């Protein structure tokens, strides 16, 4: 019986260069390759040099505090730029935040950090010297940060799998053979592929069925869906927040209607755009311009518009008939068959120029769905059409008559008092109350046009009419959001806005008392955003190249530090063996190693043999071998050569007998 | 001290069990994979925003595969726990686990975890502990302050007695027994109960561990923590003696001549008084007085129900340090304290050993029955027996002052030790002039005990 005690290892086995590999993977996926390269270089350089620093806990505390400060700054900046969506932006740069801590760990003699560096409360307590190797955590952060990339889908999972599998490979249990591990890993990878496909399918299913309830916020336009407030009771209160700014110009004609999205299908108070997938628009070669409509008029006008948005994908509010979009801030532009434009741009203030040239309404022709009046509204719509009396009129006159019908008989109101049964608010609007907001007017107009045989669609956007002296721009607030009908008449889509024009004044009466202050803050914020986007975009790229020379200066400065310690480079060991091939016990230990028996950490050879081999074999006692070994190894008064020969001979006989015992000769068996 | 709501308290055991389960069943690599899975799910909910769902899918698959390969494991392994007779609270020590591989295969990469049962903590106990500060030592950060979970964990650790870490098991060849040394530091005095031993085996991917439970109940007594004390040199009131018992030739002999008497068979010949034999012609032997011992009393104040547990533990530690410390060879120390009844234990000269007294003190709890007067009464009755008295007090009130005065009036030399929680900035000022009381601060017991003069 022998004794052996082992202690759980503090350092986690990680493949060599794996931190750098993870960093470069993160940098590659998130466009931070330069930063990742510099950090990887510093991480590897500090591992390569033989000097390490005997850091006290307080120095780790400083590194952790620096990490916290960087993280706090990044949080403030990213949240201010991207609002709640900033969480992904913070995540993207998380490896930068953690870098001081991992660098401090790599530079330290102990290669771990105290737990008190991470938890402030532990700094005051005397609860021992708990330490942690944050290497795997840092790699995990790199992986999660890389996931914020929206590109490289297939490559991403492959690279992540390589990182994770590499880490699992070096930490794999040795009780299983290599092929066993590989088989199980392949099984897991197969399951991972199936899981990923299942998740995609589940997400799509969930999205199609639940999205209706999730995306209720009316002023966050969805290219595929617009939930109206038809049927909602009480006062419709919209924000004073400035959403759109238009730079004044001589060619600007007011009021300016900026269209965001168009929808063709109405059900349960929701307008949807069916079969209207967005597709990328090709950029004009050599310029940040996109040609979004064919044709060209004689009198092109360019309008500069700035839209405030909180997501990476934004629907552009553009004048109808926009032919060309130009902006340095748009990464990609997509359009759908209804003429809606969606741009990919960092959240904040997006400025673009839209060129219109009098080719309004040349979107693709209508589809059968543009004539559909939903079943629930059929009777009330046909009765209203009869009341208007448009039979026999041509399409243009019919549309004008319908518009006039609303202007003559209906009033604009933001207050809805009645509580109506399911699906009837629009009927009440048309037949009884005859008062409502623009969504009522636009929806009813579309349905009446369709009933009259005119293809029609529902459009949403903004009406720009207000001028801000502070900003020296025309502005549209959230409450200036508007909806109207589009009718396909004489081969063109024309705007039919049947909402009484008084709506704009009524909406402005909704302005809060704080609007002046809000406007000032909004303007200040807008200016800051423009500055950070226009003027400071290149600073980060320049700053990153200051890091290597500063790191070199820091290295030579730290090298003179009294805490710098030159550490011996660890020699490469051959497997787990404690003895070389020239050891007299090489044969015996080799056979034990082949059986998977190796000394535990800190275990003496005597203890190891007592644990692993029998008391005697072939007449040779185990204690005799151990005794000769220690004499040969440590005694200054012995004939080492003779002892080595004796030890070799006895160990070989001992192990040979062991072999015979473990594989008995079949001919000897009874 | 803020009190967490009761509904949160009810979740503590579940949270504690889950945390222990995760720590035991997942390897460090497994915990990393779990972390990545959670992060992937959190940040990958919207698959349009991030690729986190791919991280989640990969790590989910790895974990499921690991779980499948860890469903059932029944090894041919037995474990025997070899415990010491007793340990001392807060002093690091170790014990052994003997692990025998009865199977035909080499067992490696195993982990053994000796588990102590989790004590049940009622809300009232928890609340009382917070009020009286049993959770002392727990970190009081904002989370602890608001939720109270770390304090609950600390209290459970104290009640459990020790935290035993998992140990890696070296490779065990077939039909071989190995011994593993398990470090053990018992946090408190009293009994520590051992319940089960868990053997853990990693799955092929090294993420999750299959568990095999071996029931093996055992108990270990943890003695009170003791500190070095000065040698007791109390003044003896013994008179008319040539020397102490240590000078006697053998047990039963004494140097004090008493009288002469006729020889009886069995009397040692060296005690024959030859002069009387010459005069009378018959054998006369010298008779000596009985053996005489120095007898000292160590009185430990256990009437401290309303004191903070730390103070009571300090009183017991000081008492145990004196009872288990160095004493003159020819003296007896009577350890007197109140448990369910007043207990008097004699230590020295074959009457009882210090270990016996320490074992008693290991289990003693604050006495909520009666008051210090009962103890004082017993002491007054037996004052004549004691050469001197050492008092270890946890409070100084009228009854205790009266006891000290009584002893002084009876002319019994005494050493008074007053254990307090107050951390005096000036240790020199700690000695209260009145009654020559030595003040022992809870946080500086060793330092203050070293300054005490055990002389009368």
What order do the helices and strands come in, and which of them pair?
The complex is a heterodimer of chains A (670) and B (456).
Chain A: E1 2-3, H1 18-30, H2 33-48, E2 51-53, H3 57-82, H4 86-92, H5 94-107, E3 113-114, H6 120-124, E4 131-132, H7 135-146, H8 153-170, H9 178-214, E5 225-227, E6 234-235, E7 242-246, E8 256-263, E9 265-267, E10 270-272, E11 279-280, E12 289-291, E13 301-309, E14 313-315, E15 318-319, E16 322-326, E17 332-335, E18 341-344, E19 348-356, H10 378-388, H11 395-409, E20 411-412, E21 415-416, H12 425-433, E22 435-436, H13 438-451, E23 456-464, E24 466-468, E25 473-477, E26 481-489, E27 492-496, H14 503-508, H15 515-534, H16 539-544, H17 547-559, E28 564-566, H18 586-594, H19 605-612, E29 616-617, E30 620-621, H20 622-634, H21 640-662
Parallel strand pairs in A: 20-22
Antiparallel strand pairs in A: 2-28, 3-4, 5-10, 6-21, 7-13, 7-25, 8-15, 8-23, 9-10, 11-17, 12-16, 13-19, 14-18, 16-19, 17-18, 23-26, 24-25, 26-27, 29-30
Helix pairs in contact in A: 1-2, 1-7, 1-8, 2-5, 3-4, 3-5, 5-7, 10-13, 11-13, 18-21, 20-21
Chain B: H1 6-25, H2 28-43, H3 52-68, E1 77-82, E2 86-88, E3 93-101, E4 110-115, H4 123-132, H5 142-147, H6 149-160, E5 167-169, E6 176-184, E7 190-202, E8 209-223, E9 257-262, H7 274-280, E10 284-288, E11 294-300, H8 309-323, E12 331-338, E13 342-347, H9 354-363, H10 372-381, E14 388-393, H11 398-409, E15 414-420, E16 437-441, H12 445-451
Parallel strand pairs in B: 2-8, 11-12, 11-14, 14-15, 15-16
Antiparallel strand pairs in B: 1-3, 3-6, 4-5, 4-7, 7-8, 9-10, 12-13
Helix pairs in contact in B: 2-3, 8-9, 10-11
């Amino acid at each position: 019986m022998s004794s052996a005690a082992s202690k759980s290892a503090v350092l986690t086995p990680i493949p060599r260069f794996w931190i750098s590999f993870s960093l470069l993977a993160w940098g590659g996926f998130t466009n931070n390759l330069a930063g990742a390269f510099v950090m990887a270089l510093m991480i590897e350089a500090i591992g390569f040099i033989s000097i390490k620093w005997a850091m006290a806990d307080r120095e780790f505390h400083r590194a952790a505090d620096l990490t916290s400060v960087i993280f706090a700054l990044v949080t403030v900046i990213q949240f201010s730029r991207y609002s709640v969506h900033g969480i992904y932006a913070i995540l993207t740069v998380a490896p930068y935040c953690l870098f001081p801590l991992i660098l401090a760990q790599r530079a330290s003699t102990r290669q771990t950090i105290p737990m008190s560096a991470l938890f402030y409360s532990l700094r005051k307590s005397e609860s021992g010297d708990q330490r942690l190797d944050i290497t795997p955590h840092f790699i995990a952060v790199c992986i999660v940060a890389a996931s914020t990339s929206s590109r490289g889908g297939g490559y991403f999972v492959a690279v992540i799998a390589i990182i994770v599998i590499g880490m699992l490979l070096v930490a794999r249990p040795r009780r299983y053979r290599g092929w066993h591990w590989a088989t199980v890993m392949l099984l897991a990878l197969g399951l991972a592929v199936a899981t990923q496909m299942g998740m995609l399918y589940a997400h799509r299913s969930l999205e199609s069925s639940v999205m209706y309830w999730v995306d209720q916020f009316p002023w966050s336009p969805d290219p595929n869906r617009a939930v109206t407030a038809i049927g909602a009771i009480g006062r419709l209160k919209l924000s004073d927040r400035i959403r759109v700014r238009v730079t004044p110009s001589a060619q600007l004609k007011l009021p300016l209607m900026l269209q965001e999205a168009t929808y063709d299908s109405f059900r349960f108070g929701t307008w949807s755009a069916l079969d209207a997938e967005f597709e990328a628009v090709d950029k004009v070669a050599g310029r940040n311009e996109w040609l979004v409509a064919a044709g060209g008029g004689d009198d092109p006008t360019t309008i500069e518009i700035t839209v405030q948005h909180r997501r990476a994908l934004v629907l552009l509010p553009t004048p109808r008939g926009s032919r060309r979009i130009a902006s340095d801030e748009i990464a990609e532009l997509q359009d759908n068959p209804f003429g809606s434009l969606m741009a990919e741009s960092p959240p904040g203030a997006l400025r673009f120029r839209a060129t219109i040239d009098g080719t309004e309404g040349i979107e693709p022709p209508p589809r059968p769905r543009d004539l559909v009046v939903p079943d629930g509204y059929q009777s009330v719509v046909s009765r209203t059409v009869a009341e208007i009396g448009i039979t026999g009129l041509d399409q243009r006159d019919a549309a004008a008559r319908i518009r006039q019908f609303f202007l003559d008989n209906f009033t604009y109101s933001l207050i809805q008092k009645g509580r109506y049964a399911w699906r009837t608010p629009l009927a009440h609007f048309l037949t009884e109350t005859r008062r409502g907001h623009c969504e009522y007017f636009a929806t009813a107009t579309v349905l009446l046009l369709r009933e009259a045989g005119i293809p029609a669609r529902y459009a949403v956007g903004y009406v720009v009419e207000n001028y801000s002296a502070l900003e020296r721009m025309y502005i549209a607030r959230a409450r200036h959001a508007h909806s109207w009908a589009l009718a396909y008449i004489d081969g063109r889509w024309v705007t039919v806005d049947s909402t009484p024009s008084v709506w704009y004044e009524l909406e402005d009466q909704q302005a809060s008392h704080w609007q002046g202050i809000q406007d000032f803050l909004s303007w200040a914020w807008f200016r800051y955003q423009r500055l950070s986007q226009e003027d400071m975009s290149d600073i980060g790229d320049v700053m990153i190249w200051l890091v290597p020379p500063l790191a070199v200066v820091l290295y030579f400065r730290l090298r003179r530090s009294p805490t710098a310690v030159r550490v011996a480079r660890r020699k490469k060991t051959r497997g787990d063996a404690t003895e070389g091939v020239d050891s007299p016990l090489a044969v015996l230990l080799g056979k034990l190693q082949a059986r998977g028996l190796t000394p535990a950490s800190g275990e003496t050879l005597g203890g190891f043999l007592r644990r692993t081999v029998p008391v005697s074999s072939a007449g040779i006692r185990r204690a005799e071998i151990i005794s000769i070994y220690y004499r040969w190894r440590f005694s200054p008064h012995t004939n080492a050569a003779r002892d080595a020969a004796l030890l070799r001979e006895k160990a070989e006989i001992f192990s040979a007998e062991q072999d015979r015992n473990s594989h008995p000769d079949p001919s000897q068996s009874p | 001290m803020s009190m967490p709501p009761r509904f949160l308290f009810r979740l503590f055991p579940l949270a504690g069990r889950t945390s222990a389960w995760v720590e035991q069943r997942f390897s460090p690599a497994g915990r990393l994979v779990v972390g990545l899975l959670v992060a992937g799910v959190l940040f990958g909910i919207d698959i349009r925003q991030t690729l986190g769902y791919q991280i989640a899918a990969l790590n989910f698959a790895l974990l499921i595969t690991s779980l499948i390969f860890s469903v059932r494991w029944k090894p041919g392994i037995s474990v025997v726990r070899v415990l010491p007779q007793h340990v001392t609270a807060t002093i690091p020590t170790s014990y052994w686990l003997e692990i025998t591989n009865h199977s035909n295969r080499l067992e490696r990469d195993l982990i053994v975890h000796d588990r102590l049962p989790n004590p049940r903590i009622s809300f009232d106990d928890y609340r009382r502990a917070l009020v009286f500060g049993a959770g002392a030592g727990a970190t009081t950060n904002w989370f602890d302050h608001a939720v109270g979970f770390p304090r609950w964990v600390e209290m459970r650790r104290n009640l459990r007695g020790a935290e035993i870490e998992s140990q890696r098991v070296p490779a065990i060849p077939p039909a071989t027994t190995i011994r593993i040394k398990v470090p053990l530091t018992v946090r408190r005095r009293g009994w520590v109960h051992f319940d089960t031993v868990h053997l853990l085996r990693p799955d092929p991917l090294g993420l999750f561990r299959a568990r095999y439970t071996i029931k093996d109940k055992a108990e270990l007594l943890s003695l009170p923590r003791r500190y070095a004390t000065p040698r007791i040199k109390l003044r003896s009131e013994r008179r008319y003696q040539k020397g102490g018992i240590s000078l006697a030739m053998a047990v039963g002999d004494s140097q004090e001549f008493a009288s002469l008497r006729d020889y009886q068979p069995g009397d040692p010949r060296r005690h024959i008084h030859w002069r009387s034999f010459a005069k009378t012609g018959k054998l006369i032997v010298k008779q000596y007085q009985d053996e005489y011992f120095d007898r000292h009393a160590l009185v430990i104040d256990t009437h401290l129900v309303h004191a903070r547990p730390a103070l009571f533990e300090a009183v017991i530690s000081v008492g145990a340090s004196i009872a288990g410390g160095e004493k003159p060879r020819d003296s007896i120390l009577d350890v007197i304290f109140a448990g369910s009844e007043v207990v008097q234990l004699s230590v020295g000269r074959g009457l009882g050993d210090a270990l016996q007294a320490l074992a008693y003190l290991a289990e003693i709890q604050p006495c909520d029955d009666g008051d210090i007067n009962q103890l004082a009464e017993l002491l007054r009755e037996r004052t004549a027996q004691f050469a001197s008295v050492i008092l270890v007090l946890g409070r100084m009130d009228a009854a205790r002052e009266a006891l000290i005065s009584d002893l002084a009036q009876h002319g019994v030399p005494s050493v008074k030790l007053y254990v307090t929680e107050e951390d005096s900035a000036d240790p020199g000022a700690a000695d209260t002039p009145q009654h020559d009381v030595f003040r022992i601060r809870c946080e500086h017991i060793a330092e203050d005990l070293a300054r005490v003069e055990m002389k009368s």
